[in-house]
Write a structure and sequence with these properties.
Layout (H helix, E strand, L loop, with lengths): L1 E11 L3 H12 L4 E5 L5 H6 L1 H17 L15 H11 L6 H10 L2 E4 L1 E4 L4 E5 L5 E12 L3 E3 L7 H4 L4 H6 L6 E5 L3 H12 L3 E6 L10 H14 L2 E4 L3 E6 L6 E5 L4 E4 L1 E4 L3 E3 L31 E3 L10 H19 L18 H4 L2 E4 L4 E6 L2 H6 L4 E7 L4 H6 L6 E7 L4 E9 L6 H9 L4 H4 L12 H10 L1
Parallel strand pairs: 1-2, 1-6, 2-3, 6-16, 8-9, 8-14, 9-10
Antiparallel strand pairs: 4-5, 5-6, 7-15, 11-12, 12-13, 17-18, 18-21, 19-20, 20-21
Helix pairs in contact: 1-10, 3-4, 3-8, 8-9
């Protein structure tokens, strides 16, 4: 028997983006149901941001300590692997979602566990784990927040190898003796940093000419240099042609283009993401299953006035904080439209119902050693956009606060200035502790703060933030 229930809003997916939709629509007084087939809290909480940072923090703290006079000898030994993994397990709630359930209860949202599929306009059919069936009807909006999964290329032999993806890399219970990583972007370099620090011998194989290809070139160069110094092998410009595993649990061999082979005990494929939209009923509303969902700036799916998509599925910015931001924007838009205030939607460039930051001020931190942090446009991106820009560079290690932070501090900073408007359109910082510089840059880019006004934002001495003064001095000449 199918149980039919009506709500104002139905959300497919209870990850961070879905949870933020729930929060905003419930705060607006709308009745909201959320459907989740796995754990409430989503990929970020259990297999991505949270566990990866729990694994990385000890590695980065030890690296920082080793660069401090008087402390380096005290942290000369290996990491306590069992303690690191236990700390990670704590932060994932041992892969249980009890805490997230308490939050859903506190806001008054209804949770349906099971697989949800669209069944025409404004309807979601849910198949529960015990065979129960529900038909949820949304009076105002259905929101797709199903996220993405790791993309595994169709290499010969890949099925028999049973490779790690980001999920296995962040939840593994043992340290592989030799870890092969195929890829050169964020997951690849972060997991190379973490597992190398935990004792694995890492070999990273990137098809492109450099690591972190979406950031300024110096970011990938500094990260690659540090990984090599830590003992990892980093090879760029190499592609995998095939993979094979010896038996069920034996070593893995990657065959490179040209015939060379590389062997390891586990293989992590970190080669991109694909949307989790292949089996959610998109075909019942005239959309192509398995694809990214095109949306407008309020995250409403093109051609469907009742359907929204937030987070990874819309491919605007595959970052947890951007998905949550989109959900805040979409939640406000859904509430305004549901209450008959659609005419009051603020659709100006930085309006309350427009996800402008997705294109103008996306911040990202890569938690490697050194950290790489960027917001807005790189120099190459700005030039491709047709802007008349100037890149201003400075050695982070020459800032007094950086020298006090760590002996031999190595890092670099760049700001990209729109010369016609005299505002920042992008900034990148690479160095130990550089992540904490990023929000100031994000405010400057999103707020379009004039360079002349930034000159009056005095950085405290002696901090690494003094880099702002050095960049402005360089710009002003």
């Amino acid at each position: 028997m199918t149980r039919a229930v009506e709500y104002d809003v139905v959300v497919l997916g209870a990850g961070p983006a879905g949870e933020n939709i729930v929060d905003r629509t419930r705060a607006a007084g709308l009745s909201t149901a959320v459907v989740e087939s796995e754990l409430v809290g989503g990929e970020c909480s259990y297999w991505a941001c949270i566990p990866s940072k729990a694994l990385l923090r000890p590695a980065l703290a030890r690296a920082d300590a080793r660069r401090v006079p008087g402390l380096a000898r005290a942290v000369s030994g290996p990491l306590d692997t069992a303690a690191v993994l236990a700390h990670r397990d704590y932060w994932t709630g041992d892969w249980k979602d009890d805490g997230q359930l308490d939050w859903l209860d506190s806001v008054g949202a209804d949770l349906y566990r099971g697989h949800g599929r669209l069944r025409g306009a404004r309807q979601v059919a849910v198949a529960g784990p015990e065979g129960e069936q529900h038909l949820l009807t949304a009076r105002h909006a259905v929101v797709v927040a199903t996220g993405s999964r790791a993309l595994i290329p169709d290499l010969p032999g890949i099925a028999g190898v049973r490779p790690w993806t980001s999920r296995e890399a962040t939840s593994a219970r043992h340290v592989p003796g030799r870890l092969l990583i195929v890829g050169g972007s964020v997951v690849a370099v972060e997991m190379a940093t973490a597992w190398q620090a935990l004792g694995s011998r890492v070999t990273l194989l990137a098809r492109g000419p450099r690591l972190l290809p979406r950031m300024e070139p110096f970011a990938g160069e500094l990260v690659a240099e540090a990984l090599r110094e830590a003992g990892a092998q980093v090879r760029t410009g190499v592609g995998a042609e095939a993979v094979v595993r010896d038996g069920h649990t034996g070593p893995v061999t990657v065959v490179l283009e040209g015939g060379e082979t590389v062997e390891g005990d586990e293989l992590l494929m970190a080669t991109g993401r694909t949307p989790r939209t292949e089996d959610i009923g998109l075909e019942t509303v005239g959309l192509e299953p398995g694809g990214w969902l095109a949306v407008d700036d309020s995250c409403r799916v093109t051609g469907h006035d009742w359907l929204y998509a937030v987070g990874d599925v819309n491919h605007r910015a595959l970052l947890t904080h951007q998905g949550k931001y989109q959900a805040r924007i979409a939640g406000a838009a859904i509430a305004a439209r549901a209450t008959g205030e659609a005419s009051a939607l603020d659709t100006t460039r930085w309006g309350a119902h427009v996800a402008t930051a997705d294109t103008a001020a996306v911040p990202q931190v890569v938690f490697t050693d050194p950290e790489a942090a960027a917001v807005g446009l790189s120099l190459a991106d700005a030039e491709r956009a047709g802007l008349r820009v100037r890149a201003v560079d400075h050695d982070l290690g020459k800032v007094s606060g950086a020298g006090l932070y760590a002996d031999g501090y190595r890092g670099r900073a760049r700001m990209v200035v729109d010369l016609d408007r005299e505002v920042l359109v992008g900034a990148t910082f690479v160095g130990p502790g550089a992540a904490e510089l990023l929000h100031a840059a994000t405010i400057a880019v999103a707020g379009e703060v004039p360079i002349d006004r930034l000159w009056h934002a005095v950085p405290a001495f002696p901090t690494i933030s003094e880099i702002w003064l050095r960049l402005l001095e360089t710009y002003r000449g």
